[in-house]
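Changelog-adjacent note: as of this version, every example in the card shows the full chain rather than a window. The one below runs 217 residues end to end.
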Amino acid sequence: MKLNKIIATVVVILACVGSIHLARVYFGPHGRATLDPRIANRSKGNPSASVWVVEYMDYQCPSCRLATKMLEAYFQAYPSKLYLQVRFHPLKQHPHGFESALYAECAARQNKFWKFHHLLFEHQDELKEEGVVADKFRRFAGETGLNFEKLDACVTNLLTKEAVSQENNDSQTLGVNSTPTFFINGKMVVGSKPLLAELKTISPGFNYELPEENHAR
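Full-length structure tokens:
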């Protein structure tokens, strides 16, 4: 029994150390996100900005769509004040969440992430269907101007799928269990309504209101 308690204690300590290490890798020792080269093409804004936002999202999440519009509005209002990193956290209950993230990652590898990213949210309702939706992803890819040969090679590459899966696993280690989840200068904020409240606290002049019919928390 005593040995089992020791083993359990060691496991808990290692898990905590791993989580702290991962947080330091992602956010740095002072709560600021790091310039992660793995997601450079999924980052935008001024790296010297006072507001750093790391967003964990799912393309089939209605609240994530609202948050994306909100962050775009913030960029327009304060173009030099925000630095944004998008990370994937596809939810199991969404049939095309992982596939959407996979295609978005492949778009990023062709330096065309942001247009593809916005197209996925603009056509979010089309991704509610069960079954194969590859034709829709290819349509979005065509509108984005992606190279189809490179795209096909990327989405079928096991290493690409492992990279998206690992990013999702890492997010869970950080305590992310729903979308959208944000780390604003290292502070966890969950949901689009709390995001709006936080942005208005940072920038009281930010004049933005969520639509009344929103699905946001």
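Structural remarks: DSSP finds eight helices and five strands in the chain.
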